[in-house]
Amino acid sequence: MSQAFGKVAVLLGGSSAEREVSLKSGAAVHAALVQAGVDAHLFDPAERPLHELAQEGFDRVFIALHGRGGEDGTLQGALEFMGLPYTGSSVLGSALAMDKIRCKHLFQVAGLRTAPYKVVSQSQGFDCAEIMAQLGHVMVKPSHEGSSIGMAEANNAEELAQALEAAFKFDDEVLVEQWLSGREFTVSILSDKALPVIEMRTPSGFYDYQAKYQSSTTEYYCPADLSAAQTAQLQEMAEQAFALVGAKGWGRVDAMQGDDGEFYLLEVNTVPGMTEKSLVPMAAKATGVDFTALVVKILEQTL
């Protein structure tokens, strides 16, 4: 099977705010592919022009780029123009999943439960006091960033103004979402099917960048301590959300459980972290699929 892949480029690094995470994901993916006997090579688009993929005779691409320029459809469009098969979602699915605001609109229209929210634009006026009166305790999120970059909690109008100022450094449009204080979950998707649910617990209050990549106190429960009915419900919601935005192949859908016991969708990730300690590998391992086998399964989707 490894010979059927031909020469494979593992795209990592890039120039987004998630570069450091991507370098770790790409290195782990590359090591696993080499271990599986695949002719895999590291390729950082921030250091080399993309057209060298064609010049050097690559047959397909494993995308391990996170954030802008790798997860938002632009790279996918370039690869399609070059005629190179690639892992993960296509142009539309990548672009929609990366846009938190459009995702929220889609969830709402499709009747998938998500927290109440407001969209704030830097170019248009907004009233922080009015937003807080409507939503109360909120989470502020740049529309096009991942790994919780630029996110902040706000309890009053002054804190909201500060959070928006910080978020506007990343995006012109910002999502202001009503705070959910319940349990936090993620559902990994492989071959468009949900894997076991993982619960994340962190003393920091929410699963932010530090909790994801730097903290030693974050706890993971896989499978999550949920009833069979709750697990099935959350997995079905994740599969519906994944398909709704046009994502395909593999990825991850994040959700929270509110104080009312209901599940609320947060976002869809089309190129989530892929170190051996990341969430998708953790869920795959729970089904008996080790990291190397997981990476090969994802690459097989390009055949």
UniProtKB/TrEMBL annotation:
Its EC number(s): 6.3.2.4
Keyword Magnesium: no
Reaction(s) catalysed by this chain's protein: 2 D-alanine + ATP = D-alanyl-D-alanine + ADP + phosphate + H(+)
The keyword Transcription belongs to this UniProt entry's keyword annotation: no
Pathway, per record: Cell wall biogenesis; peptidoglycan biosynthesis
InterPro entries to which the protein is assigned, alphabetical: ATP-grasp (IPR011761), ATP_grasp_subdomain_1 (IPR013815), D-Ala_lig_Van_CS (IPR000291), D_ala_D_ala (IPR005905), Dala_Dala_lig_C (IPR011095), Dala_Dala_lig_N (IPR011127), PreATP-grasp_dom_sf (IPR016185)
One Pfam family from the record: Dala_Dala_lig_C
Molecular function via GO: D-alanine-D-alanine ligase activity
Domain ATP-grasp: start-end pairs: 104-300
Bilayer-crossing regions: none
Source organism superkingdom: Bacteria
UniProtKB keywords: ATP-binding, Cell shape, Cell wall biogenesis/degradation, Cytoplasm, Ligase, Nucleotide-binding, Peptidoglycan synthesis
Necessary cofactors: Mn(2+); Mg(2+)
Subcellular location: Cytoplasm
Top-level class of the enzyme under EC nomenclature: ligase
Entry function: Cell wall formation.
Protein family (similarity comment): Belongs to the D-alanine--D-alanine ligase family.
Protein name stated in the entry: D-alanine--D-alanine ligase
